[in-house]
From TrEMBL:
Lineage: superkingdom: Bacteria
Region listing for Disordered, in residue ranges: 105-160
Residue ranges with Basic and acidic residues bias: 105-123
Pfam families: NinB
Organism for this UniProt entry: Phyllobacterium pellucidum
Protein name as annotated: Recombination protein NinB
Polar residues compositional bias, start-end: 135-158
Length: 246
């Protein structure tokens, strides 16, 4: 199945196989628990915020390495990012927070997050849970259909609507290219949250487009221009038709 799919992707496409990262439910639970710890615990005479506690627990989970900071007398822990954690790692982090809260020296009462607290797109480092256009519409009788029909397997056909949406997607991501690739990710998540109707092929191309613009971050203007040209070709649209920032 993978080999058959690979024969139909664009030349130069890069595919990465990795474990599934944290779920939206885990992310919501983590931040709810961190908020409760921040509200209820005084740490060595200080109240810490959610980000401080996230760094504390992540450092404990990963037995973080520390290095001297730029400012004299400071130290900086490495590897504190939680957005790339696997489901297993996030589960271990949540269990660690539970264990911390059960210590009688700093007891914490935890509440389960409500379903409405589960994010669908996040700017805190996680990918949006829905790919662009992957939202479903429930029909009478309980059946569910995607907002636009998927193209036949192996098809290289993009609808006019696909091209319009991908064109806007490219414009947004191109404008987000800078020193920090996370800005591109946030632009991608913002677009995903709008639940645009895209075919399966268009959704796959959108992820490839995201990767190219992320790779262009911190690079020269020539690299950025090359990414723009390539992604326009990938989306089967004319670069001159896009209102992109120079």
């Amino acid at each position: 199945m993978v080999a058959a799919w690979a024969r139909n992707v664009e030349y130069g496409t890069i595919v990465e196989f990795r474990k599934k990262t944290r779920s939206a439910e885990q992310n919501a639970k983590l931040h709810a628990m961190l908020g409760e710890v921040a509200e209820q615990v005084v740490w060595y005479g200080r109240k810490l915020d959610i980000d401080d506690w996230k760094n504390m627990f992540t450092a404990s989970l990963r037995h973080a390495d520390v290095i001297p900071g730029i400012d004299k007398g400071t130290i900086v822990p490495l590897g504190m990012k939680t957005s790339t954690m696997t489901v297993e790692e996030m589960g271990n982090l949540i269990e660690l927070i539970y264990a911390f809260g059960s210590d009688p020296e700093h007891p914490v009462q935890f509440k389960e997050p409500q379903e409405s607290d589960v994010p669908h797109a996040s700017d805190d480092g996680s990918e949006a849970d829905l790919l662009p256009g992957e939202a479903s519409n429930t029909e009478p009788g309980g059946s569910s259909e995607t907002s636009s029909p998927d193209q036949p397997s192996g098809s290289n056909f993009l609808t006019d609507e696909d091209k319009r949406n991908l064109g806007e997607f490219i414009v947004r991501l191109n404008a987000a290219v800078g020193a920090d690739p996370d800005v591109v990710r946030m632009a991608r998540n913002s677009f995903a949250a709008e639940q645009r109707p895209l075919s399966k092929l268009a959704k796959e191309k959108a992820e490839t487009i995201t990767g190219h613009f992320r790779d262009a971050c911190g690079k020269s203007d020539e690299v950025r221009q090359a990414a723009l040209a390539f992604t326009c070709a990938l989306a089967q649209i004319d670069e001159q038709d896009l209102a992109v920032q120079p």
